[in-house]
Structures are given as structure tokens and as C-alpha cells.
Write a structure and sequence with these properties.
Length: 90
């Protein structure tokens, strides 16, 4: 008879522990689902930003090729500006 009471107590305590562990697991999985949803949203925004940046760089590259002579003049200006500064420092 005492073994039956001990078994009932064991199963009662085991059931309570399983309910507590299951509840904690449900809460953790629920929060994990929200975190993954937010992460998906953030990665979508980063991907869109990367696409925009790629398109902007492509447009800048095309503009640089078509207006190469203007950039050459600007580059020469800065090159002479910095070369004069080096000559004065010596």
C-alpha cells in the first residue's frame, strides 16, 4: 500500500514538473518566434538598402565614365594642391 502512495506522489510531482517545464518552453518558443520575425524584417531592410546602394554605385560608375574629363580636372587640382603642400613642408 505504501508503494502505491509513493508511486502516486512520484507521478503527481512529475506531472507538476512537466507542466512547469512545458509552460517555460512555450514562453521561450513564443519569444523566439517574435525574435525571428524581427530578424527577418531587419534582414529584409538590409537587403533593400544593399540593393539601393548597389544601384547608386552603378549609377555613379556610369556617371564617372561619361564625365571622366571633369573628374580628371578635379583629380589634377587636388594632386597639385597636395603636392604644393608637401613642397612647402620640406
Amino acid at each position: 500500500m505504501t508503494t502505491l502512495i509513493h508511486a502516486d506522489i512520484f507521478f503527481f510531482i512529475s506531472t507538476i514538473c512537466m507542466i512547469i517545464i512545458s509552460s517555460i518552453l512555450v514562453v521561450v518558443l513564443w519569444n523566439l518566434a517574435h525574435i525571428l520575425k524581427d530578424l527577418r524584417h531587419i534582414s529584409k531592410k538590409v537587403r533593400e538598402g544593399g540593393d539601393v546602394l548597389s544601384q547608386d554605385l552603378h549609377d555613379w560608375h556610369i556617371a564617372a565614365r561619361t564625365e571622366a574629363s571633369q573628374f580628371k580636372h578635379v583629380f589634377k587640382y587636388f594632386k597639385t594642391l597636395f603636392s604644393h603642400r608637401r613642397d612647402h613642408k620640406k
